[in-house]
Structures are given as C-alpha cells and as structure tokens.
Amino acid sequence: MTTATAPNAPILDKGLANTIAAETQMSFIDGSKGVLEYVGYDIDSLARNSTFEEVVFLLWNRRLPKRAELDSFTAELRREYDLPAGAWKLLVEMPRDAAPMHALRTLVSALSLFDAEADDNSPDANRRKAIRLVAKTPALIANFDRHRKGKSLVKPDSTHSIANSFLSMLNGAAPTDAVARALDVCLILHADHGLNASTFAARVTISTLSDLYSAMVTAIGTLKGPLHGGANEEVMVMLNEIESMDRVEPYIRGKLARKDRIMGFGHRVYKALDPRAGYLKTFAKQVAADTGNMHLYEMSTRIEQIMAAEVASKGIYPNVDFYSATTYHSIGIDLDLFTCMFAMSRIAGWSGHCIEQLDGNKLIRPMADYTGPHALRYQPIEKR
Ligand code: CMC
After folding, report:
1. According to CATH, what is the number of the domain 27-225+347-358?
2. Which residue from 117, 168, 283, 341 has the least number of CB within 10 angstroms?
3. Domain 231-330 CATH assignment equals 3.40.50.300
4. pLDDT tens across 170-220, in order?
C-alpha cells in the first residue's frame, strides 16, 4: 500500500502533508503567498481593527456581527466567565508544581463534570458549550497561576473583555489599555489556522461522536508539543539562553551546524513569511519598546537575519510563535503560560471546527501501512 498503482488506491502520505482531510469555511491559508484569511477577511485587517470576541463571532457565524449582535454575543460570553463551584474547588487541589498545560488539560476536562449538557451533541448544545469553553478557559489559566504562586483566587470581571478580564485575574490588577490590546491581538492571531495538528486531533475526536470537552482535551494535549504550540515557550527559552546580542550569531550558527531546529521558524504550510508573524513583528517592537524589552526584540531580529541568510532558501521563515514569545514576555506573562495563551485563543477555532465536523459528519479513520512480518508461528512462552 505504499504507492498508488490504480485510481483511488490509497497512498502513504507521511505527516498527511498532502492530504485534504476536511472542508472548512473558517480559515483559508495560501502558504506559498503567505496569506491567512478568517472567513475571507485578511488576518492583518482583523488584527488591526477587530477584537477577539468579534473574531469568535465571525468564525462561528461566518460573517461579521452587527453592533447589536456583537453586544449580545459579548454579553453571552461574559455571563459564562465564572467557573462552576466544583472547578474552583478542584483548582486549589491541583499540585502547585504542575506544568500549566497539564493543569489546563485537566481543568478543561473537569469542566465536563459540571456541565449537564456535556454529552449533548446537538448544534445548540454544542454552541452553548463552545461559549462556556471560550469564556471559562481564561479563569482556569489565570487562577491556576495564582494558586501555584500561593495567591488567593480571583473571580473573572464580567464587565470587561476576555483579554482584560484574564490579565486582571492573572495580575490582581487591571491592565493598561495597551497591554490588554496586545493580548487581544495575540488572541485574534491564534484563533484559527486551517487543519493544524490540534484542530485535526479535535475533529478526529468529535468525528467518533464523542463530546466537545473530550475534543478540547485531545486538542490541548496535541497543541502542547514543541513542534506545534509549545514552540513559543521554546523561543523564550532560546532567547534566555542566548542572553546577549554578541552571543546570537555563535548560538544560531552552532545550532544550525548541529542540524538542531530553531524554534519559531518554519511551518508545514507557509513557505513564505507567516502573515501572523509579519504583523506580530511590528507589534512586538512597539510592546517591547513600551515595556523596556527592546533587547529581546533586537536579538529576535538578529536571529531572523541570520536565518534569512542561512535557510530562507528552504522556505523557512519566522512563524507566529517567534514574535509572540517577545510579546507575551513584554506584557508580563510567565514563560510556561505561553502555550496556555495559544490554547485560550485556539479553543475558539477548535470548537468551531468540531461543530463544522458534526454537520455532515464522517468518522475520520485513515489507514496504516503495515510494515511488520506475516505468518509467524505462535511459540509457547517457554520456547521463546
Ligand atoms: N530550524 C532549522 N531547520 C528547519 C526548521 C527550523 N525551525 N524547520 C524546518 N527545518 C528544515 C529541516 O531540518 C529540513 O531540512 P532538510 O530538508 O535539510 O532535512 C527542512 O527544513 C524541512 O523540514 P520538515 O521537518 O520536513 O518540515 P515540516 O513541514 O515537517 O516541519 C515544522 C514544520 C513546524 C515542524 C518545522 O518547521 C519545525 O520543527 N519548526 C520548529 C518548531 C516550531 O516553530 N513550531 C511552530 C509551528 S507554527 C505554530 C503552530 O501552528 O503550531
């Protein structure tokens, strides 16, 4: 089954890089031209003009809302910010030294225990659950961080946006408008991205007619890997290891010589600049300048120059994780929360994809090319 010999014969497509496994109306990517659109709107114009809440409406409804619709959708989200009592109790039982992505995966899973609609896969129930998931995830992340630092838990502020309420919980103080906007832009840029690994994983789970919470747990576990959402943390680890401008060149060239990957570069789909990275670069510069982190931005641009000279010919450019690391650090988010920030946004895309998958669902079940032996004779254990 390794090569196609007849029409419709299965082919082995490692990494599924050349397989179209779903239809979607949420996001469009042209990797060769560096284009990303949500429902036909260029990501750059959304990052400049929209808000995370409006983008979630757009992704789920396939159109921009009118004012009254956005107000009503935002109010619906805000009514769901708070956590069920059981989740607050569970939060304080979590081990303080747990890695935040493990804690988030567990806490999102736990939300299903307190949702009477957990197993209802009707479109209306799934839409209500998607709202709950997007609305409650910020309180889970911020309060796990408070708990592990020995701080008291803080309730979400349902008078503010998701970005603002999250930062208020995280820091115990309201953010400046500029910092809240910086997070809001990061949430917009991460909300959806075609059939990336975690979205595919979520669609596989829901395609079995499991439930939305299980699909989110699958997706969070998939996002966590350093080849996917975990790369933003690795970028910050790299910047911390490099420490200063004079060490950038030997560090990057040394890694490339050892054939190590430079985190925050390269993408399965983009062979031109990731359009999210283009906007984030400008944005990261401003945020870094405002917060006294220009050295991080300057080290990043130097890494980009070296990578351009060394590997741009292979189609390797900065991806969304590269400049989001500097942005998150500049707005005061701990390194090990970076991937949680990605999840907080992508949960909108994951849940939208699951609802899309269930509309005309077909079980996702590819085949494997068996490469082991055949026709072996069973030996009794004493004779092996
Ligand atoms: N640094 C150095 N070389 C690289 C890198 C990198 N970051 N990425 C790919 N390459 C090289 C790779 O060594 C290979 O070279 P050669 O052909 O000489 O062996 C060539 O480029 C193709 O690599 P590949 O692994 O076949 O390409 P892929 O499409 O499977 O990989 C990727 C995509 C994202 C896994 C990879 O680029 C990578 O590991 N990047 C670093 C991790 C990262 O930043 N991930 C975040 C992705 S964006 C956010 C998200 O959507 O999750």
Report:
1. 1.10.580.10
2. 117
3. no
4. 999 999 999 999 999 999 999 999 999 999 999 999 999 999 999 999 999
